[in-house]
Structure formats: C-alpha cells, structure tokens
Amino acid sequence: MTSEMLQADKYLSIINDRGKTRKPLSRVYRNMRQRDMFLKAYANLYSNAGATTKGVDPNDSIQGMSLQRIETIIQKLVDGAYRWQPARRVYVPKSNGEERPISIPGWTDKMVQEVMCLILEAYYEPRFRDSSHGFRPNRGCHTALKCIRNTWTGTKWFIEGDLKGCFDHSS
Questions:
Q1: ∠ at Cα 14 (13, 20), nearest 5°?
Q2: Bridge partners of 102?
Q3: CB burial readout 34-72, b (16+ within 10 A) else e
Q4: Which of 15, 50, 71, 122 is the most exposed place for a label (fewest CB within 10 A)?
Q5: What is the C-alpha separation between 59 and 131, in angstroms, rounded?
Q6: What is the pLDDT, as a whole number, of residue 166?
Q7: pTM of the model
Q8: Interval 62-105: pLDDT, tens
Q9: CA 48/CA 27 separation, integer angstroms
C-alpha cells in the first residue's frame, strides 16, 4: 500500500470518527480533490469488472489511466470546470422477460463518483442502524435473512408487497 493510500485511509478514518460522534463534516470538496483519494478510488474500481464498462465516450475509459489524468480531473474540480457527461443507457433482460434500464457513466465520472462515495460512506455508514441492510458495504439480502432467522424466531411467515404504480394515478 502506498503512502498516499495510507493518507486517504487516514482521512477516511477521521471522517468515520466524525460520523460516529455525529460531528459536522467540513472541507469535503477540498479534501475530495486529493490525488490519494483518486488513487484509492482507482484501486476500488479497477478490481470491479463492471466498472470498466465504457460509457457514451469510447475514449473515456480505463485505458491510458495515469497520474496525469488524475491531476487533470482534480484541476477541473479545482477550477470549477468539471462537467458530468451523459451516461450510456442499456437495457438488461430480467428473468420475467422484461428489461431493466441501467445507465453506464464514463470512466472519469466513475472515478469522481467513487471518491464521493468513499467520503460519504465513511461518514454515514456508522450512523445507519445495524438492522439496515440495503445498499451497504458487506450487507445485503443474505445478511438481512440471517438477521431475520436469528432475531425473529417466533415468526412463521412474511407478506411481500410491491408498491409499483401505487402513486401513479391521482383520484
């Protein structure tokens, strides 16, 4: 692990402590523009095969990733010149024959999003209830089911509902 990664980890640890004690967070935008945060974001994204999927611009990909490219992104953030690019919309087939739309951003946007995610997750994760499992690191359906099995010992059955379309029409 590089010393820059350690600096990012130290900053995220400080943010995490502030989240635990519910202290306000300041200078987030300034601190997200640090090269070490982008290196940590790159390490996270590089190991995720889906993160390398190209967006709208075929030239905005992981290919040719360099420190200079990171510095260019940071400079645009510093100058207020950074602009999000349109995402590529694709439709993924579902098991019921329907399609689910997903948006795939370009690599540069993924990097900036990951830096933001690192910071927000470090701050808010300690504030969430232990019983919350959706869209959290190292949690999901399986941890929720394990919690239900261990906690709700007297429960015989559950009712699942889907509210889709419930609020589509006004009366």
A1: 85
A2: 90
A3: bebbbbbbbebbeeeeebebbbeeeebbeeeeeeeebee
A4: 50
A5: 42
A6: 62
A7: 0.81
A8: 888 999 999 999 999 999 999 999 999 999 998 989 899 999 99
A9: 29
